[in-house]
Amino acid sequence: MGRLMLALLLASAAALANPVLADDTRDSTVVSQVAAQLGRARGVRARFTQTQTLLSMQRPLVSTGTLLFSRERGVIWQIEQPLRLTYVVTEAGVRTLDAAGKPVPGSQRNAAGIAQVSRMMRAMLGGDLSAMYSQFDVAAQGTPAHWRLRLTPTQPQLAQALRGLDLHGDTYVRGITIRAVSGDETRLEFTDSASVDTLSPAELALLGAS
Q1: Domains of the chain, earliest start first
Q2: Dihedral sign, CA of 13, 114, 153, 139?
Q3: pLDDT confidence of residue 201
Q4: Where does the signal sequence lie (predicted)?
Q5: pTM of the model as a whole
């Protein structure tokens, strides 16, 4: 997940106020419909599979786990394989926990990047895509029932490292592909997505609810 966060960090920055809309009226309409649809859920629970294909590695790197997104409280990423690790991201900051629920020593050195990326993911999963539009040209295909977005970086600093991002989904975001200029590729697929209205006591505790 650390590699995932670093890859996604290339595609994110602090949320900017003025969104850049899609290239034409039709694309803008699709994007607006998708954002409205994603924004209906107060929370989303899903499983994820991350697959990284790196030119320096003979085999893809695969990790799996669960994601809980709460618009009001934050995000919990729980990695199950190949190791157990949990990232808890709230407005107060980032905590990294090991399999026993204990803080991971030294994890704060990546906390800023993880928090930034998770804020972007939190906004995106909640239907607020403006943070991404402020840095990318957007091409859209399909309908709210089956859509695809291709994001091409417009900022030179991003374009030096990132070729683009592809997103697809329906009622929920189903997948994200991050294509690096180096030829490396990271795919994140979400399955078993479901809307969440009520969190468990354990989840509330992780997110710091009183």
Answers
A1: 2-206 (2.50.20.10)
A2: negative
A3: 92
A4: 1-22
A5: 0.74
